[in-house]
User: What shape does this take?
Amino acid sequence: MSSSLERTVAIQSTRGLGFVFLLIATPFLGFGGYLLSDSIDFSGQSVEVISAVTEVSTETCETRREKNHRTVYHRYTCYRPTVAYTFEGRSYSKVLNSTSSGRYKIGETFKLQLDPKNPSEARWPADLWLPVAFLLGFGGVIGAIGCAFVVFNPIRRNSLEERLRRRGQRVRAKVIEVREDSRIRISGRHPFIVRAQFTDPRSGRLITAQATSVMIDPRLTGDIDAEGCVEVLYDPIASDKCIIDLLPLSFVS
Assistant: This one.
């Protein structure tokens, strides 16, 4: 298999992963955009009223976190307030959506935003923007990762490989692993991952180079010699930046 063809396959695989991230980000960004538009419209026509806590209900809330590769759940008591407010001479009551681990005091006051056309529709200011911030923030991070895979990572791959082919040094590296990547399927087939190690002549460190998205088993193509070695191109100044020759570019971790 030619280097250019393998490089194309590697880029397509990377872009495919990027599109998966973008697909995950789309509903978060879409719903976040909808909520942002709704919050802006509501905020633009709403008026501010002062409400007072009239009742506090007790609930059991739950948080979870990862610890030692396990999901740990923590349950605690939280409180949800019911508030009352007056608008244009009429009294209204509303159970707020937000809960708190701290107990509310009866008579404690809060500012609410309400729709003058529908005074019973009152919202806590935090409820207008916190869901928007979470959805757009989370979707934006996932989308940025997807864009990096689709656009910037292939550019970086090409740039490094071209630089190493012009100015890199060659060294023979011992192949330590050849296996199918069962996580990825391209044209109905799993590509191969190849890992090889060499000693950096300058520092004496053992460097591991990794090539991905290899569509033909290199043990059958002659890329691995009789002694189980392949040629690696590396940067003599930063030997961690290297490629396995005739195989796709890979950064060393």
In short: Residues 1-9, 247-253 have pLDDT under 50 and may be disordered. Residues 33 and 165 are 46 Å apart (CA to CA). Residues 153-244 form one domain. The helical segments are 3-45, 125-167.
